[in-house]
Structure formats: structure tokens, C-alpha cells
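> forwarded from #structure-qc
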């Protein structure tokens, strides 16, 4: 008998974002593992969303990536791939999407998180949520999790191109004087002692992208640390801008390559907070265009996903 050829699933995953200001509290509670934030914590987060327009385009951008990937694969390989969208902390939740995939009777599913670098404090949660959902319904399919893709040549080429484009847009007087500043989400400092690969991946990929972009020099920092008593990785971008000012730097290009879309960590932490600090210091701060749902970024995710398709399923 000929074995039934089942489609292969690709689950595109992202962090999630509240759709309205009323959603901020349940969203924040989910991030905190079910513990409600304090009134002060909630007010602070709501205030940030209000100042960036009440919501961010993260959901729409992630859905657009999944939709474009689905359309492209259906054109290239009709009936061969099913693409799903799932979020870690908001709708559609991973726990709700996994049963939908199971109902489609897939044998293998590749999970790709729209975040290039791995840490067990960030990306591992996506795998954990998926495995918990699978366990509840009897593990109906094999889940193949992409742990990282920061070293994929298409990703590095995309960010390098965005850097070159942004540098060319600085005024003529700034040419050759722009400091390129890579940044990524901070995590608790203890991950270093625990041997987490996050920091090394960040520094390695920043150096490789800088070389590909033809930069003689680049800097690296963190952003978006949570307000907790324990120390987080630094220096923070706001503090680092002050250090650059003390060096005489007048022009900075922000490269938040730890993220791929415009959401709160970009719209608030970079475009609002860091930009305000730069103005205060007399620094001209610009940012690269984020990958968002651009066709070049869909190329990256397509390549990352298809390279992980298990041999047995091809």
C-alpha cells in the first residue's frame, strides 16, 4: 500500500500583543504566569500603549507574514504545506492552535518563532506551551522546533541591507560619522552563569552583520529590561547613549536586530524613550526599517522553515 502523503505544518509564532487597552491587564497577567500586575505596573504599561497609539501592529504584521508564506508555498508546492499562526501570550494562543493542527491530521509540524536568537528564558517558552498542548491531546504529530536562525545568511543579508540603506539616508555632513548601535531585549543577568547561549549568539550575529554591511565599527547594548529586583543584562540603550555622547558621538543608527517587527519594544523603547534621550543629548538617532512583513523577510522565514522539514516527511 502507498502511504498517505500528509501536508507538513508550519506554525509561525510570535509574542502576542493586546488589541485594546482593556486587553492589557489579561495580556500582562498571562505574561506573568497568571499573576495579576500591581496597579502601578498596569498603569505604566497602559500608559506606554496609549503613547504609541493604543496598540501596536504586531498581530497584523505576524498574520501578514503567515498569510504571505501560506500563499507562496501553495503556489510552489500545491497542497504540500499548511501554515498556522500562533501567539505566546495572546490570541490566537498556542494552546488553541495546536488542537486545530491536530484536527488537520498532520504528521509533522515545524515551529518557527519570529525571533532570531535563542534563550531558554524567551524562546523555550514557545516549545513548552506547544508540548503541553500536545500532551493534552495525545501527541498527534511530531513537533520540530527551530531553536534559532540568527545565523541564517538571508537574515544577516537582510539586516545588513537595512543598515546600508539607513546609513545612506543620513545627511551628507553625517556620512562616515554614524555609530551603528545593535540592541536586543535584555534578560536576567543570571543567564550568563547558567551557560545560556543568548548573549554569545547576539554578539556573534551582530559582528557578522556588521562585517557584511561593511562597517568599520559597531556597538552593542540591551533594551527593554523588566523592572525587577534582580540585575538584568546591560548596558541599557538609554544609558549607552549617554556614554556615546561623552565620546563625542553625534549620529547613531539604531539596529534593534533582536526583534523583527514594530511593537512596543521598538515603538516605545527605541522610537520614544531612546529618541527622547538622544534629543536631550544633542544626538541624531535614526532606526533601520524593521523586517515587519516585507517580502524579503518572508523569504527568510520560508527558508528557515523549509530547511527544517524532516527528511522522513519529504
Amino acid at each position: 500500500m502507498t502511504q498517505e502523503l500528509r501536508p507538513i505544518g508550519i506554525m509561525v509564532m510570535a509574542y502576542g500583543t493586546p488589541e485594546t487597552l482593556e486587553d492589557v491587564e489579561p495580556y500582562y497577567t498571562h505574561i506573568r504566569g497568571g499573576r495579576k500586575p500591581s496597579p502601578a505596573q498596569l498603569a505604566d504599561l497602559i500608559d506606554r500603549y496609549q503613547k504609541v497609539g493604543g496598540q501596536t501592529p504586531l498581530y497584523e504584521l505576524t498574520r501578514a507574514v503567515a498569510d504571505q508564506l501560506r500563499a507562496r508555498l501553495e503556489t510552489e508546492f500545491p497542497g504540500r504545506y499548511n501554515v498556522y499562526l500562533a501567539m505566546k501570550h495572546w490570541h490566537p494562543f498556542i494552546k488553541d492552535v495546536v488542537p486545530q493542527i491536530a484536527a488537520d491530521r498532520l504528521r509533522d509540524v515545524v515551529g518557527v518563532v519570529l525571533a532570531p536568537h535563542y534563550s531558554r528564558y524567551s524562546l523555550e517558552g514557545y516549545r513548552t506551551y506547544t508540548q503541553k498542548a500536545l500532551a493534552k491531546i495525545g501527541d498527534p504529530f511530531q513537533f520540530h522546533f527551530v531553536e534559532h536562525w540568527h545565523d541564517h545568511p538571508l537574515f544577516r543579508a537582510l539586516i545588513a541591507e537595512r543598515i546600508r540603506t539607513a546609513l545612506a539616508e543620513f545627511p551628507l555632513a553625517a556620512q562616515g560619522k554614524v555609530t551603528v548601535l545593535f540592541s536586543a531585549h535584555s534578560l536576567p543577568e543570571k543567564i550568563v552563569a547558567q551557560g545560556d547561549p543568548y548573549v554569545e549568539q547576539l554578539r556573534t550575529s551582530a559582528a557578522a552583520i556588521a562585517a557584511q554591511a561593511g562597517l568599520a565599527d559597531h556597538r552593542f547594548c540591551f533594551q527593554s529590561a523588566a523592572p525587577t529586583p534582580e540585575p538584568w543584562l546591560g548596558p541599557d540603550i538609554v544609558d549607552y547613549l549617554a556614554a556615546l555622547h561623552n565620546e563625542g558621538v553625534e549620529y547613531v543608527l539604531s539596529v534593534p536586530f533582536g526583534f523583527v517587527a514594530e511593537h512596543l519594544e521598538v515603538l516605545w523603547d527605541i522610537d520614544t524613550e531612546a529618541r527622547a534621550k538622544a534629543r536631550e543629548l544633542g544626538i541624531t538617532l535614526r532606526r533601520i526599517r524593521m523586517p515587519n512583513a516585507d517580502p524579503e523577510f518572508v523569504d527568510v522565514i520560508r527558508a528557515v522553515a523549509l530547511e527544517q522539514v524532516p527528511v522522513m516527511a519529504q
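QC bot note: The CA atoms of residues 256 and 266 lie 7 Å apart. The chain has two domains: 8-149+294-313, 153-287.
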